[in-house]
Design brief:
Blueprint lengths: L1 H9 L2 H20 L34 E7 L10 E12 L2 E6 L4 E7 L8 H4 L17 E5 L6 E3 L27 E9 L2 E8 L2 E12 L2 E10 L6 E7 L3 E7 L2 E6 L3 E8 L6 E6 L3 E6 L9 E8 L3 H10 L20 E3 L10 E5 L14 E6 L5 E5 L4 E5 L8 E7 L7 E5 L2 E6 L2 E6 L9 E6 L12 E6 L5 E5 L12 E3 L2 E2 L8 E4 L6 E6 L5 E4 L6 E4 L9 E5 L4 E2 L19 E3 L7 E6 L12 E5 L4 E9 L4 E8 L9 E4 L6 E6 L10 E8 L9 E5 L2 E5 L6 H4 L5 E6 L21 E3 L3 E4 L5 E5 L6 E11 L5 E10 L24 H6 L8 H10 L27 E3 L5 E3 L2 H9 L22 H13 L6
Helix pairs in contact: 1-2, 7-9
Length: 940
């Protein structure tokens, strides 16, 4: 203010007013960082990601108290219960080289062990630093197993249960998956406070909090469980251990001991509780349980368990007598920040070279924790702050998402999740869907980190089958959740029997779409019969869609408009005795166009130009985004799709529209086989305002097909019928992987159709292709090569399904003076006039790329990230098959592999290749074989 007073002395009133105004503007601008003022930028801003040179820390972080994982204890210690599997396990490194696994479905401690940890061989774990490694297996305990309980509830009401009370459907199912009935036991979640994690759950109406620990003493290592039990309306029972070779039991006061073979004992001590509040229950020298009497008092008992040599009992009793009980903290206050550091990156904005471009949000790699980031999904707060979830189990916040992406600030928010694939933000609260269920991540103290991993709903069962993904979650306008569960594919490790080609016995709802009420308490089956579904929903209308993965029973990639009661044709995931008629998809997508579709996203803004308020399909395999068009017929809908040309640095999985800039943001990472070899990225699909040349609408009917482009077209080029190629075919839905292409009479191949004439609409924006013999067909393809009125060459393809054929109202569609007299042709005569194709090596190389072979097979020797064997030196080599037989890879074998890929499976690989029957002509196959031969060191 001294400066302002000096200005007053120097100038007249008018000048003073102007100077004061400009000075104040500059002063305030500099304070708040308006344009024109120099702002202080943080140091060490990351501008690029280099996955090939990343130095990563272990998947298990030393200072984070838990991970979530399945655990396979089928081959347990002989003195402990057998076949002891856990699907929804929470694994705790307890210190003192001790570990424990809590089963959140049965509210039990399945196993406590010492010394070595466990194998990190689950899908997310094994690929954490080996980005393309899919050869997963179930994690198993490596150390010495000490204390365990079997597959039954950890807590009981009324009478103690030593068997699984959950319904087993069908009865021959080897394992039952899913939580206890909520009125019996309800998992609430994990609260982090300091270095500890606290488990919260209800048994009946009793609220229980506990935290695990471990300590050493002269005779070994103890497992310590500290509890807080609220008011108990009834007696409740806690089973602490099961010993299968118990010989004798001794109980005295607060200690129970079971003697075992070889002078071994299991001892359990109870501290910090008076005798009139509890009682021991020991059965058959096998089960050790505690009864906590009904009462209003809050109890805080501590249970110390130990297994060791009998001569160590004195040391155990001394340890127990000297143990200092700690009081429970106020958990509702939240804990101290674990990750206070922020990481800064600068995005890479693309030049406006097309109507749609992709800007890249540079990831926080490297970061202080040397943590990997393989992003699966993205969501946004109302203020535009983003949240991403990684397949490795982390959630990050990203702020500064503006037009220039010049300073992105990344903050770790949560960790320890089990293969999460979905994130949603509802009323500015984060929800994720992982194998444990739908978790509400709550920040209790405002430090932008999750303190309470609250289980919003685990009502959906989850098997250990590694492909029964917690695949997707979307939210409708009412706040209800829709989730998609992967089918239990016959891939990866085995824990259940094969029930159909390509499938094993998963949970009761694998391969299904389920509706979960907004409060998480009710579940409704919406659709079944899916292999690998991923969802999309219009957040304004609730219109629900789903893709599926090509494979057994799924001939190619479909996109469904989902309705309650739909059945989509995968017998293994029908979950009903009498299956209804198979619901046909909105559209099919050819294998060479997209061999692996994932989520869908609505561009729910008016800022995306011709994509505004449109449905977008997301391709993992190609990868990239597709614009979906819907043609409303008299009795339903049929769809078409075209590719949005842009740069996609990695596979794409999920997407979301930004609430402020209105652009579509998409995330994805690589693992399962994609044409892209990038590892992970977060991108913005941005509309630049330049002209777009994709179709904006289509209509298929008796007279042919109308494509509306929304821009003026060149009349002369549109009228040339040689500028169009049209084909159609059907698929066969069988138990085999994928499908070839078949004509309407069932013979192998595609049917080429002539364009009898082509017409331009009155507004010069739509093209009518007069096509004869229009009928219902699963797949049609139109390739066009025309010009816009501004001279832009429009060369592209459009792919659609014809589910219903009605007359097109040509006048209403803008073709006022078009008269169509002939709509028939002789297909044999037309086919005979087609020129015979000559096989060439160059054509074979092109087929290798366009038919998606490159997504699974390397032209070199690479096997990393590939589903199929490499092609380098394949020709002439000896092939060894699963049954032990061998053959030489000559031309006959290569042709057989293209037409009957599941006839002989190469050792070490799975039957995950579709047949090319009817897809590749003889000339195509000869060309592809020429290309494969060219990759061999042998002479042709």
């Amino acid at each position: 203010m001294l400066i302002l007073r000096n200005i007053d002395r120097l100038f007249n009133k008018k000048v003073k007013r102007e100077i004061r105004f400009h000075f104040l503007f500059l002063f305030v601008a500099c304070c708040i960082g308006l344009p024109g003022c120099q702002k202080r930028m943080p140091e060490n801003i990351i501008t690029e990601n280099h996955f090939d040179s990343l130095e990563l820390a272990s998947f298990v972080e030393a200072d984070f108290p838990f991970i979530t994982s399945s655990l396979d204890n089928r081959n347990n210690s002989k003195s402990l219960p057998q076949n002891n599997v856990v699907s929804r396990g929470i694994i705790f490194p307890l210190g003192a080289d001790s570990y424990a696994c809590f089963d959140s479905d049965l509210l039990r401690w399945s196993v406590f062990w010492t010394d070595d940890f466990m194998t990190l061989t689950g899908m997310a774990q094994v690929s954490y630093s080996d980005f393309f490694n899919k050869r997963n297996s179930y994690p198993v305990v490596l150390g010495k197993q000490k204390i365990s309980t079997g597959i039954y509830p950890g807590w009981s009401l009324g009478n103690i249960l030593y068997e699984d009370p959950r319904s087993r459907i069908p009865e021959d199912r080897p394992y039952t998956w899913g939580p206890l009935e909520p009125n019996y036991g309800l998992w609430e979640g994990i609260i982090l406070n300091g270095e500890k994690a606290y488990l919260k759950y209800n048994v009946g109406k009793t609220e229980i909090t506990e935290t695990p620990g471990a300590e050493k003493f002269s005779g070994g290592k103890t497992f310590i469980r500290s509890y807080q039990l609220e008011e108990r309306n009834d007696d409740i029972f806690l089973t602490l251990a099961e010993i299968t070779n118990g010989l004798n039991t001794e109980t005295e006061g607060h200690v129970t001991i079971i003697e075992q073979e070889k002078d071994t004992v299991t001892a359990v001590a109870l501290l910090n509780i008076e005798a009139d509040h509890f009682g021991w229950v020991v059965k058959d020298n096998r089960y050790i349980s505690l009864k906590f009497n009904a009462g209003e008092e809050i109890l805080e008992p501590v249970i110390i368990s130990w297994k060791g040599a009998k001569n160590g009992l004195n040391g155990f009793e001394e340890f127990v007598s000297n143990y200092q009980v700690e009081s429970f903290p106020k958990l509702e206050d939240g804990g101290a920040s674990r990750w206070p550091e922020e990481v800064y990156t600068k995005g890479q904005k693309s030049p406006d070279t097309a109507s749609f471009v992709t800007d890249q949000l540079t990831l926080p790699l490297p970061n202080p924790w040397k943590r990997n980031m393989r992003i699966m999904d993205v969501a946004f707060y109302k203020d535009g702050t983003g949240a991403v979830v990684t397949f490795s189990g982390d959630v990050w916040l990203v702020s500064g998402v503006n037009d220039d992406l010049d300073l992105l600030t990344w903050k770790r928010f949560a960790s320890g999740l089990n293969e999460p694939m979905s994130i949603e933000i509802i009323n500015d609260e984060i929800y994720v869907f992982d194998r444990l269920g739908i978790q509400h991540l709550q920040d209790l103290n405002g430090d932008r980190e999750a303190d309470f991993y609250r289980m919003h709903s685990n009502i959906m069962p989850q098997s250990m089958e590694t492909r029964e993904w917690a695949a997707d979650m979307v939210v409708d306008p009412n706040g209800d959740f829709y989730i998609a569960k992967g089918g239990a594919l016959n891939a990866g490790p085995k824990i259940s029997k094969v029930i159909r080609d390509g499938f094993r016995l998963g949970s009761r709802y694998d391969g299904s779409i389920l509706k979960i009420s907004s409060d998480g308490k009710r579940m409704e089956v919406i659709a079944t019969g899916l292999r690998g579904p991923y969802l999309g929903i219009n957040p304004k209308t609730g219109f629900l869609t789903s893709s599926d993965q090509q494979g057994n029973f799924v001939p190619s990639t479909p996109l469904y408009a989902v309705r309650k009661g739909d059945y989509y044709g995968v017998e293994a995931t029908a979950h009903m005795v009498d299956t209804p008629e198979i619901t046909q998809p909105l559209l099919w997508i050819p294998h060479n166009v997209d061999q692996s579709g994932l989520g869908q996203v609505w561009a729910t803004s008016d800022k995306m130009g011709p994509l505004s308020n449109q449905l977008i399909h997301i391709s993992f395999g190609r990868p990239g985004l597709f614009k979906i068009l819907i043609d409303s017929t008299e009795n339903g809908m049929q769809g078409g799709i075209s590719y949005i040309q842009a740069h996609y640095p990695t596979p794409v999985s999920k997407g979301e529209t930004h609430p402020i800039d209105g652009q579509v943001y998409v995330a994805g990472f690589n693992l399962w086989g994609s044409k892209s070899k990038g590892v992970s990225s977060l991108n913005r699909l941005r509309y630049t305002g330049q002209p777009d040349y994709l179709p904006t609408g289509f209509e298929a009917g008796t007279q042919g097909v109308i494509l509306d482009f929304g821009i003026e077209l060149d009349p002369e080029e549109v009228a040339k019928i040689g500028n169009y190629q049209v084909s159609r075919y059907n698929y066969n839905r069988t138990s085999k992987y994928g499908s070839g292409h078949f004509k309407r009479d069932g013979s192998a191949g595609e049917e080429s159709l002539p364009v009898l004439s082509a017409h331009l609409s009155e507004d010069r924006q739509s093209v009518l292709l007069v096509i004869p013999n229009m009928v219902e067909i699963q797949q049609m393809e139109i390739y066009y090569d025309i010009l816009s009125s501004d001279g832009y060459k429009i060369k592209d393809g459009f792919y659609f399904s014809v589910k219903e054929v009605n007359d097109i109202d040509l006048e209403k569609s803008g073709f006022i003076n078009v008269k169509i007299e002939k709509l028939t042709f002789d297909p044999e005569e037309y086919a005979s006039n087609q020129e015979e194709e000559i096989p060439t090596l160059e054509k074979g190389k092109n087929i290798f790329q366009t038919m998606a072979c490159a997504g699974c097979h390397s032209p070199g020797t690479r096997t990393e990230g590939m589903y199929g064997p490499p092609f380098k030196n394949l020709f002439g080599s000896e092939r060894k098959f699963e049954d032990g037989s061998t053959t030489v890879a000559d031309e006959l074998y290569l042709k057989e592999s293209l037409l009957e890929p599941d006839k002989r499976i190469v050792e070490g690989y799975s039957a995950e290749m579709p047949s090319f029957v009817g897809i590749l002509s003889d000339s195509d196959m000869e060309s592809l074989i020429l290309y494969i031969k060219s990759l061999s060191d042998l002479k042709l």
